[in-house]
Design a protein that fits this description.
Alpha-Beta Plaits, D-Maltodextrin-Binding Protein, domain 2, 15 strands, about 375 residues, five-stranded mixed β-sheet, alpha/beta, about 25% strand, six-stranded mixed β-sheet
């Protein structure tokens, strides 16, 4: 068989496989519609249906990656299944998600990575506005940044948890790649200012020092705002990601200019529903201890004695008094796990105040 005949045969096989894939995806979608009907029929008067189950979605993605035999990698396979689940869920009940905007930010990319493109997403101007939208019930969930591997905690998010009673329902980890972007009218030999968010400027500090030491660095509200400004200026560039570049039609003058190649940001999914255990979970809490010697030691001892892994601890000024502080702590395990329950009970007895922000599945990828 000649090369052309082999190609023709392979294309026919691909066409047949595509038809089978479409049939199976449509069957899955019909099952999703049936799930919605069953849930609605089982509702009691005044009860609201829960269509999105974070623990179920996390299990599906982990299961798919466990049984994946290639040649597609786990991340690509998970991305494909995320979009299938997103589209099927939209048939049951379209999710509304608020995120820290404007369009083109890394937070929007995190929202789409977690929920897929079938959600109704709304950009908000500030982190506190995302919290307020969820509290008011205008959206089902919110997506906010909480920490960066290079620059540390996002304090506005931590402070918002002190003011609002919401539940953490999930987390997203996003590898952050920054590019130096220019527009069609940019004179690349005459760049006098570079726009970006303050965090992004900090994450690219060494690269900027080496390549543009004498160029003004202008901090703006977001990387998307930086990209928008460059669109209409001939002497400026922006540091932003792929989504902003696509949204504003900019090109890359330099790629992946972040100082650390493993630069990542962690985002939290906030909502109102508690998430059952999946077997691979994290819990976040806020603790306030008495202002006395050894207070931090007393806080950490129960975790050590029960072999619970702390993944993050941050300190923020308390709103209750001058020179008093609260601790934000993330650790491995679910609040319903016996060991975790024991630790939380002990902390509730020793702490001035304890607030469980939520237990949720670890980021799948």
């Amino acid at each position: 068989m000649g090369d052309q005949d082999q190609l023709k045969a392979l294309r026919v096989r691909i066409d047949n496989l595509d038809e089978k894939l479409l049939e199976l995806i449509s069957e899955r979608a019909r099952c999703a519609e049936e799930v919605a009907r069953v849930k609605m029929a089982a509702l009691k008067p005044g009860e609201a249906a829960v269509f999105y189950r974070p623990e179920r979605e996390a299990w599906v993605l982990r299961h798919i990656m466990e049984i994946n035999k290639g040649p597609l990698g786990n991340e690509e396979v998970a991305r494909l299944f995320r979009e299938i689940m997103s589209s099927c869920l939209a048939l049951e009940h379209p999710l509304k998600v608020a995120y820290l905007g404007p369009e083109g930010t890394f937070t929007q990319a995190a929202a789409l990575k977690h929920f897929g493109h079938a959600v109704i997403s709304t950009p908000m101007a500030a982190i506190d506005e995302v919290f307020r939208e969820v509290v008011a019930g205008a959206v089902n969930f919110g997506v906010v940044p909480v920490e960066n591997s290079t620059e540390g905690a996002v304090n506005h998010t931590l402070d918002s948890f002190l003011e609002h009673d919401l539940v953490i329902c999930g987390e997203v980890e996003l590898r952050i790649h920054h590019h130096l972007l220019v527009g069609e009218n940019t004179r690349t030999d005459g760049i006098t200012r570079i726009y970006s968010h303050a965090q992004s400027l900090a994450q690219c500090r060494k690269w900027l020092d080496a390549h543009y030491p004498n160029v003004e660095r202008v901090a703006v509200a977001s990387n998307a705002d930086a990209a928008r400004r460059v669109k209409s200026e001939w002497n400026s560039a922006a540091i932003a990601g792929d989504m902003a570049a696509q949204l504003y039609g900019l090109s890359r003058l330099a790629e992946k200019i972040e100082d650390r190649p493993d630069n990542s940001t962690r985002f939290l999914i906030i909502g109102n529903q508690e998430v059952p255990p999946t077997g691979d979970d994290k819990t976040s809490i806020i603790v306030s201890m008495s202002n006395k010697p050894g207070a931090l030691h007393e806080l950490l001892v129960p975790f050590h004695e029960n072999g619970i892994d702390l993944t993050r601890i941050e300190t923020r000024p308390s709103r209750s008094g001058k020179w008093t502080y609260v601790f934000f702590i993330d650790f491995v395990g679910h609040r319903h796990d016996p060991l975790v329950k024991s630790v939380l009970e002990r902390l509730s007895q020793e702490a001035v105040a304890l607030k469980v922000l939520g237990s949720y599945p670890k980021a799948v990828l």
